[in-house]
Predict the structure.
Amino acid sequence: MNSIPALKIYFAVFVAALVLASCSGVKESTVPVPQQPVPAVAEKKPISDSLKILSINTLHMLHDVQSVKRFASWVRMFTPDVVAVQQIDRPMEGKKDFDAVRELAQQLEMTQFFGAARYYKGFDSGNAVFSVYPIKQSTVEQLPVSKGKVRRSLAYTVIDVGLQSVGFASTEVDDQSAAERKKQAQALVLMLPQFTDFPFVLCGEFYEPSSGTTAGVMKDKYFCANDLGAAPAAGTQHLYAAGRTTVRPVAATTIVNKDIHSDAIVVTLRIVSQ
């Protein structure tokens, strides 16, 4: 007989619990949810006193998206801040052919400047500079060539690396005549003083080892990074630095891109703020 009152009591407790739970849910929905801590914004690339440069002659081999992707993947293995390229092509003005310069800049996520040297199979061919830092100024200078010789140029940029601005240039001299290369090296030595507002780095394809005549002309005025121990003298890619009190090559090595059968030089520079 006492079981019925007990059941009533249990039922009343159960109903009360449901009511409380229902009220509790409504109450929680009206209370603002505490905000979670906001994640810190990712910092920009820190300013560094060290820069890595890669210079290579691509030999007109970047002719479609896939070849550029393979090349960009290879470049990224060496984590350069600045890439100097020779014999790279882009469409002539008004044409919509494949643009290797623009595609490589997108693949590397870098800014770029291209300096045309000559016409090549329907394209403008020349030298380019790619940078993870902003390019503030740029110009292209033509090198002297004898009658009937292939035209050559120098693509010059001023890059803001944080501590200061540094001039970077990419060039290519004659591939057949030592006399022509010497003449072009002499022109470079005369040309470069106009860029003395900034410490200056010149990268490029010189078609002879750094012990050659052309390098001898350049070394009269500029320090050759190829003379650092780890860079074999046989490499035809050279890097020269002017204003060595503020731009100091501290390490250099040569590497080979097997896809395009071209050697490259990788140089680490130390930047000293003024």
Q: What stands out?
A: The chain has one domain: 50-271. Residues 1-44 have pLDDT under 50 and may be disordered. The radius of gyration is 31 Å.
